[in-house]
Design goal:
By secondary structure, this protein is of the alpha+beta class. It has helices at 2-11, 37-47, 67-77, 105-108, and strands spanning 16-24, 27-34, 57-62, 82-89, 95-102. It folds into 2 domains: 2-47, no CATH class; 57-108, 2-Layer Sandwich (Alpha-Beta Plaits), CATH 3.30.70.
Length: 113
């Protein structure tokens, strides 16, 4: 399924910039951040794939031990709960992009890494 979705998005020039996927109990979920949300929504609708949209906070952190912990602690001190996060590093740039689903996006955006 991931192959079908990624291929369909690619054909419409939609770039996936963040991704997390899992299967459970015969089904699955894919969370993704794309560069063209409106085009992605059309692709999902045209293929009959169920989708929902949620705003996330994108943060670039240094790819060093403790950087995620420091930032997550800052969110906690600002009263922001983290519902989910996914991140990845190519190691070449020594940076990683993290995508946070948070309880208060407005407050979270005031917190700097």
């Amino acid at each position: 399924m991931l192959g079908e979705i990624a291929t369909a998005l690619g054909e419409k020039k939609v770039n996936i910039v963040g991704l997390c996927a899992a299967t459970t109990g015969g089904g699955g979920m894919i969370w993704m951040v794309v560069d063209k949300p409106a085009a992605a929504k059309k692709v999902f609708a045209q293929n009959g794939w169920q989708a929902s949209e949620e705003e996330v906070m994108a943060v670039t952190l240094s790819d060093t031990p403790g950087s995620l912990g420091r930032f997550a602690s800052k969110l906690g001190k600002a009263g922001v709960n983290i519902a989910f996060v996914y991140a990845g590093s190519a190691r070449a740039a020594r940076k990683l992009n993290a995508y946070f689903g948070v309880s208060d996006l407005k407050a979270a955006l005031k917190v700097r890494p």
